[in-house]
Amino acid sequence: MNTSQQVQPRLSLLTQDQIERVHSNTLQVLSTTGIRVDSPHARSIFTKAMGNSSNGNIIRIPAEFVEQALKTVPSSIDIYNRRGQKVFSLGNDQISETRFGIGVTNIWYEEPQSNEIKHFSRKHVGLASQLGQTLDNFDLVSTPGIIQDDSGDDREVIAALEMVANTTKPLVLLISETSQFEQTLELLEHLNGDLSSKPFIIPYFNPITPLVLNEDTTDKLFSTIERDLPFIFSSYGMYGATAPITASATLVMLNAELLAGLVFAQLVKAGTPAILGSLPSVFEMKNMISTYTPQTMQVNLACAEMMAHYGIPHCGTSGSGSGWGPDLLASGALWLNHLTSSLGRVGLAPFVGGNFDSLVFSPATVVYSNEVIRQIRQFSRGFSIDAETMGLDDIQAVGPGGSFLMSEQTLALYREIHEQHSHVWQGFSLDNWRSQGSPRASDVLRDHVLDVMASMQVPDDHDALIERGEAFLYKKR
Fold first, then answer.
1. CB-based contact 306:333 (threshold 8 Å)
2. Cα–Cα distance for residue pair 410/416, rounded to 1 Å
3. Both 256 and 402 in a single domain?
4. Does an H or E element contain 398, and which?
5. Considering only Cβ atoms within 10 Å of each terminal Cβ, which end of the chain, N or C, has fewer?
6. Do 322 and 410 reside in the same domain of the chain?
7. Neighbours of 288 (CB within 10 A)
8. What kind and span of H or E run contains 443?
9. What is the number of structural domains in the chain?
């Protein structure tokens, strides 16, 4: 008999009955309330398939089209780096560990040494991408910011060029302008050839909550689906503003938006790979900001469980939010979000590093998050209970009143256990802390961030990619 056993913490919310209730209510929203589809081309896709299900620009989606889309969408997606090496898979009921990425479209940059807030620039895109390349616990890099010091009509394309030149990791692309989205894909095809066979690019799209498939989103979806690329389709809803005030109603409505996007993609091309998820938040009316709360993070987990039920790869929230830097406010959100995501069924958490309602990119927050994710991954992997780890021989050898300091098992495993301690802050006794000048934890983190950034190196083909990319863009102008 195999006596080996792994103790592994897990977190779940919904019962099977609750999952079925959410799904049933979602189908009711889609078939009765429907969704608004702004693009005539997109509406024609729906009406050609469904006949008289439309009323002007409102499309009501019958349940059978949802069920068909769930049958044709792939249940897992392999993701590669730009060298063509497979780095992870998403899906398969989200049984593997959560994958994290840095970024989201910030418009400001917080200097790690001075904490000065500056407009996000092209240089900052490169630095953020290099940081994502350097830190081991980030699996991908998302568009880290919107270039503010260039008013040209290709600044989002230039940001993508900086990303691809400064990291080899997979990229999540958030591009607002449809014309620049198409240019970006053309640029990346020019630099890397076919993007679909071993995809390292994942475009990211949002519908407009509540229940609107806007024209820009469907236009970009057409371009993505034509190239056989996987994409992320994610709903962003704020309790009490763009979404209902209750968690259950928000879950149902955001789920309806996701399934509407799925149906559209599968009608355009059956078998199109999709990653679905939501960014539930609360509209904080007093200060006019959106924020994450314990309940919105529960909705994030519930959404992940719905996607696991459907057999669809999932993308969720990441903990970027209303912190003022890598401070107490940010750290609480990071720990709660990253821990629950890793213990739940969240597949992808791609937007780490933003503060002030995801307006300010903070390298210090990214480096702190890297340490948080490292420790959470250790926690979520659990520990084994078997004859070897039980160590009965060790206990017998040491005996009552003895010390395990020099036991065989301690000597064999000490380095492994030591790795679980913080990689940023060393442990101090009170006397040692005083003798070192009573350092502040924030100062130690700042120095560590500066050391990390001083050690960053660009990929060996950085200069060649920048040169080729800029030549390509110059011809397009």
1. no
2. 10
3. no
4. helix 392-398
5. N
6. no
7. 9
8. helix 441-454
9. 2
Identify the residue whose tokens are 């934890």: 441
Does residue 402 share a domain with residue 317? no
Q: Range of 175's domain? A: 1-390+421-477
What does pTM read for this prediction? Answer: 0.94
Asked if 149 contacts 401 with a C-beta cutoff of 8 angstroms, the reply is: no
Q: What is the sign of the dihedral through the CA atoms of 324, 327, 332 and 337?
A: positive
Do 406 and 268 belong to one domain? no
* Residue listed under structure tokens 């120095």: 447
List beta partners, residue 110: 117
Helices within 118-246 (DSSP H only): 122-134, 155-166, 178-192, 215-226
Angle formed at CA 119 by CA 113 and CA 120, multiple of 5 degrees: 85
C-alpha 60/C-alpha 34 separation (Å) is: 4
Distance (Å, whole) CA 196 – CA 111: 37
In order along its 477 residues, the chain shows pLDDT tens digits of 345 588 889 999 999 999 999 999 999 999 999 999 999 999 999 999 998 655 789 999 999 999 999 999 999 999 999 999 999 999 976 667 899 999 988 999 999 999 999 999 999 999 999 999 999 999 999 999 999 987 778 999 999 999 999 999 999 999 999 999 999 999 999 999 999 999 999 999 999 999 999 999 999 999 999 999 999 999 999 988 999 999 999 999 999 999 999 999 999 999 999 999 999 988 888 877 778 889 999 999 999 999 999 999 999 987 777 788 889 889 999 999 999 999 999 999 999 999 998 899 999 999 999 999 999 999 998 988 888 888 898 899 999 999 998 888 888 888 888 888 899 998 899 999 999 999 999 999 999 999 999 999 999 999 999 999 999 998 877
113 and 210 belong to one structural domain? yes
